[in-house]
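Contributing new records

If you add data, match the layout below exactly. Sequence lines come first and carry their own label; structure lines follow with theirs. Keep one chain per record. Anything else will be rejected by the validation script.
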Amino acid sequence: MIHSIAVIGAGMMGGGIARNLASDGSFSVTVFDFDPNRVQRCVEAGAQAAGSVSEAVAGADLVITSLPLPETVYSVVQDNLKASAPEAIWMDVSTIDPGTGRKLEDLLSVGGRRFVACPLGKGPVQAEAGTLPLFVGCDKDLLDELAPVFACIGDGIHYLGTVEAATTFKIVSNMVGMANLAVLAEGYALCRRCDVGDDDFVDALRDTGAWSYQADIRLPLMINGDFDTRFAVDLALKDVRLAIDVAARRGLPVPLGAAGLSQLAAAHSHGWGSEDVDAILKVIEPPRA
């Protein structure tokens, strides 16, 4: 039974997860992040602060990692594995490639520890609300043990079987979402150029098959020129690149995914990498000086 949880990485996604677990009252939650302000927000929700990763994971029944890059996840696990309890479960909620997922599973199994891939859907709003879709890959017998944790952080558990399946699905989901966003930005820019009003565009598009989750969430942001970060261009660029790399290794052409990648790369090259992904609109229709 899971009583103590360590959360490594308290950013936009990990922070919401840590706060929900801490405020639930069923778990003892310890948090580590290099940003003390992030940690403090979790402490205010009932978590404890750790001075290092090794301090956070010591004695934890469950270690949750929420980190930006696959190589960072692997190095954190590798460097702190021995500090964790021999029977600990390590659950990564980051967006990583299936190759890294397999390596983590192998690394942890050597000492008898167990690994769960649990990438997340949607974004920071859902992380804060505890309504994230969860895409789970692990031994099926872990699901009952993790059920109370999932109930605190998610609303919709998709058990996909293997670590490889869960990690692959997540990067494919992001590839599809970013291709969708890229063509949405193009369509919006074209209609605006042709004097279709913003309200008319939204109302009419909503009544067609072209409407989407990206339109629901990010079209209002594009219309308002709001590029504050919810999901950064650079993170999306990393995720879509991972998906395209997997496709290349499998010999599968994904030209539309590659087109979405090129728009993200262009946004990065313009210096908008830390802005929200809706900044790809500025690639199509550059802001006036």
